[in-house]
Amino acid sequence: MEEQEATVRNINPNPASPSDEAGPPDASSIWARMAWTHLDAVRRRAPLVQCITNLVSMDIAANVLLASGASPAMIHSINEIQDFTPKADALYINIGTLSAEWVPAMQAAAKAALEANRPWVLDPVAVSASSYRMEACLELVKLRPTVIRGNASEILALSSACRISGAKGVDSAHESIDALDAAKSLAKSSNAIVAVSGAVDFVTDGDRVISCSNGVSMMQKITATGCAVTALIAAFVAIDPWNALKATASALAVFGLTGELGMEMASGPASLRMHMVDWLYRLNESTVATRARLSERS
Ligand SMILES: Nc1ncnc2c1ncn2[C@@H]1O[C@H](COP(=O)(O)OP(=O)(O)OP(=O)(O)O)[C@@H](O)[C@H]1O
Ligand SMILES: Cc1ncsc1CCO
Ligand SMILES: [Mg+2]
Fold first, then answer.
1. What are the DSSP calls for the chain, one per residue?
2. Average pLDDT, 10 consecutive residues per value, the chain (298 residues)
3. Which ligand 2 atom lies nearest to the CA of residue 223?
4. Which of 199, 243, 255, 264 has the fewest Cβ atoms nearer than 10 Å?
5. Residue to mutate (ligand 2; options 51, 55, 56; most atoms within 8 A of CB)
6. Would the ipTM clear 0.90, i.e. be above it?
């Protein structure tokens, strides 16, 4: 814990540089510098992120974590939770391909993370697809996730805990702004940081709201980009657990930025996916500090 607290102090960006002749930076550049500080910390500390994630997303989530500098471990057997989960710096649980066998493992892992004082992050994929999925997800929410990240339809459904949200499958049928009030309400009732992804991503603790406008719409044509950014959120929260709101916003900005840079070189979803992973590996300070678009909504 001492080490974590030291990290929090290191993460606070220093907004004003004495040698900055252009004067103090504006609020958006302070947020952008924070995104770089978080990415840099992930690269330096290589947090171990245990992922219990859906079968579709395993490859992209592991590659995104590796490219960011984190260390992924796709370990989901209930027989390994007791030994392994306390060793991980963060846990990521995603219900995308839920099965009866995995639900107890997810619950055991969330409990183990809580007991070991480790942050854990929930992706409620297609939570309104069935009552089984909704009930499993509500049980997980009771185990106090640090962050919940979903698309607008998922956050709307989970927030109201109703079975029919208008979504047909894993994709969103809503704009992220439509889910902002639901996200705030879910954050207050669950005590988690809640992120809604979309053209603009919103991150809230129930009161404060940070928005991120990085990203390109083609990211929706790559399966499991949402799952991958939730994995990245787990890595960012691992290195700054006491500032989960800011760490989550930073992860969304960095990931969206890789989409923008990747799109300059891509010819479609498959090559965009490849370029995003490459850009995540290559991003440097000046690019993140000048192109991350984060702001706090008043
Ligand atoms: N219209 C858009 N414009 C720009 N970026 C977008 C848009 N929609 C989504 N994104 C970005 O794509 C990423 C995935 O978000 P999305 O809302 O599609 O997740 P998801 O529906 O949970 O995805 P999946 O279930 O396939 O993993 C996020 O980083 C988000 O910022
Ligand atoms: C397509 C799909 N189906 C279950 S999980 C998943 C990955 C995107 O969430
Ligand atoms: Mg999703």
1. -HHHHHHHHHHS-----TT-TT-SPPHHHHHHHHHHHHHHHHHHH--EEEEE--TTTHHHHHHHHHHHT-EEE----HHHHHHHGGGSSEEEEE-TT--TTHHHHHHHHHHHHHHTT--EEEE-TTTTS-HHHHHHHHHHHHT--SEEEEEHHHHHHHHHT-S--S--SSS-SS-GGGGHHHHHHHHHHH-SEEEEESSSEEEESSS-EEEE----GGGGGSTTHHHHHHHHHHHHHHH-GGGHHHHHHHHHHHHHHHHHHHHTT-SSHHHHHHHHHHHHHH--HHHHHHH--EEEE-
2. 38 42 76 98 98 98 98 98 98 97 97 98 97 95 97 95 54 90 95 97 98 98 98 99 98 98 98 98 98 93
3. 8
4. 264
5. 56
6. yes
